[in-house]
């Protein structure tokens, strides 16, 4: 497990890494990113001593980071195993996407009401970058950037907070729907439909397009995870 916490070319932290952040924050980000990028997988055990050694810190900031990950729903106590990365059940995945449809639709609606011309053009550009990405992993990164741009354009701090919590849960899902053949092309069409509605300040169309986009992602995810 320990060798997967950092990226393959990322060095163990030294004092320079803590000039602008605490050790606890550093460990939290390292573990969160490892979960998000699939280097730590669902059900994987997290051992304080190994994490501390790999990241070059004491066990105190590791305990602090693990408590935060538990509070964010990314890590849980498993009987007889200690702390592990949360494993989502089929029911939890269904509930997650049901909430995501609502929140993403609301974000698109608010963005249509409040987005600046520059924010609208950014959405167009990010949609094209996602379409042109060369690998599913890169497409997933571009997709996150596209959705984050919608959240910013919505200009609603409370919605952003709710979406941030939901994004934490999404990091637990394995792989990416962009592995599905043809998904890059269909996602681009869906992204552009959202972007154009936002640019046109058509709140109803933006919300509908946002919800439809997540519904399609849910269908693909269910097929990948559960064969349905």
CATH class of the largest domain: Mainly Alpha
Mean pLDDT: 90
**Coarse structural class:** mainly alpha
Indicate how many domains the architecture comprises: 2
Which shape, going by the Cα principal axes? Answer: globular
Largest sheet: spatial strand order: 1-2
CATH-assigned homologous superfamily of the largest domain: GntR ligand-binding domain-like
Q: How many strand segments?
A: 2
CATH topology of the largest domain: Four Helix Bundle (Hemerythrin (Met), subunit A)
Determine the N-to-C terminus distance: 31 Å
Element string (H = helix, E = strand): HHHEEHHHHHH
CATH architecture of the largest domain: Up-down Bundle
- State the helical fraction: 55-70%
Strand content: under 5%
Total number of helices: 9
The low-confidence runs, each spanning 5 or more residues with pLDDT under 50, are none
Rg is: 19 Å
User: Main sheet?
Assistant: 2 strands, antiparallel
In short:
This protein has helices spanning 23-36, 48-55, 59-71, 90-114, 117-132, 136-154, 157-170, 183-199, 203-226; strands spanning 75-78, 82-85.
Can you walk me through this structure?
- About 65% of the residues lie in helices and about 5% in strands.
- The chain contains nine helices and two strands.
- The chain has helices at about 25-35, 50-55, 60-70, 90-115, 115-130, 135-155, 155-170, 185-200, 205-225; strands spanning about 75-80, 80-85.
- Strand 1 and strand 2 form a beta hairpin.
- The protein is globular.
- The model has no long low-confidence stretch (mean pLDDT about 90).
